[in-house]
User: What shape does this take?
Amino acid sequence: MSNKGSSVPSVTKLPGWLNKRAAGVHLHPSSLPGGHGIGCLGKSARQWVDFLSDAGFSYWQMCPVGPTGFGDSPYQVFSSSAGNPYFIDLEALVSLGYLTNEDLTPLNHFSPDQVDYGSLWEAFFPIMRLALRKYLQDPNPLENEYGNLDDFKELHSSWLEPFAKYQTLKTKNDLNPWWLWNEADKNASRSPLPQTLSEEYNFHIFLQFIFRSQWNKLHQYAKSKRISLIGDLPIYVAPDSSDTWWNRELFQTNKDGIFQAVAGVPPDYFNESGQLWGNPLYNWGEMRADGYDWWIKRIRDQLELFEIVRIDHFRGFHDYWSIPQGSKDAKKGTWEKGPGLKFWEIITEAFPHLPFLAEDLGDISKGVRDLRTSAGLPGMAVLQFAFDGNPQNLYLPHNLSKDLVLYTGTHDNDTSCGWYHSTDETTRSFFRSYLNIDGSTPGWDMLRHAYRSVSQLVIVLAQDLLSLGKDARFNTPGEPCGNWNWRMTGDQFSNLRSQSANYLKEQAMLADRFSEKLG
Assistant: This one.
């Protein structure tokens, strides 16, 4: 982790959304409590918004909310713009008469503290197909609640049609990635679907209609409580996605889906083989030719869901690691130039209020930092990375700047308690000495000191508010299994609301981060 030195440039003028001190919590919707196997957009989500408001927070940050596939990672989704159907509130469909409580029985045995994605996949979609059949018999209750389905289709046609067609043909081809489909389907993006596939196509439209409608209701509720949503946009899209299938010319790939090179990062201190992500790389020249229209649409779709969008792996706009197709690891890649500041000048024209946060963690060069500041974007700092004993470590509170959003940890980090108890004693000793603490409550110690830092925005992990250890870690990069499945239980949430909300509000007020002050 390149976090040495304190001579990091700052943006000359903060974006408007970052002009006031505030705090937020990172919690993916899948981790919300509830009774049907995974968090959803229903009652518990609104209660979570209530808690954030009561506790003096202003932001709710989450991972990407797209439809996940093999591996369950929200960073490898079937569409940049579609929503994850698992987040649909089924209780709302019961209230509208499209499902019964008996229909939900297959979901009642799921664990309250872990998501079992494999079993969920088998149980969830048959329930939603039943809801679609009942909707087709009587669409009025649903459309009275959520609006007209045809209007939704027209409004979101630019991403909805490609996604629904892709999912339909993926189902037809035994769920294989698109480059393994039969030749006709592989190249059928602009061809009409056969009538025999219309039922499957309409099913995916139906899922997205309900997701987006319920999301919009939750989003409006959050706004009423003065809670803003921060989303997360990976710089790269998944290889097996409607994005790549529909827009092959925008990627370094041929019509058969053979990628010329793929994304990753080179070997470093943490990984001697580097990281081979496998995402297709962009054909930046082709994208530049039409004024980055695909990117503008992609970002606009995200800003319908969120107030602020974190750009994951911002480094790729400056230079990116290009790994030859067929490589077994990331050692033999080369650095290639990204689109640079010209790209961000065009994006700024489209989105002049700059609702973006650049993820600039890792082995970051001066050129990357200069690009971020020239683009006028805030960056990130992670408090867990600060305590290596070097007083010039740029993540230590005395080296921070207002344009660095300070995280106690991210979705890729261990919880603060897990980090403290697993790190070496030298680091623990520096942590205790610097913060002048005894180390008994590392998560809360980090929160209190982060709140008092100069950073305009502080984001804490929900797990740290519960003082949870390593078992509650959300993701371990490089580990193929066991990620993305942690959930908060109902009892944990109840205790958090009753025991911590007032204290958190007091801390926000002391550090001038109280949400009621924010306009």
About this structure: The longest helix spans residues 198-224.
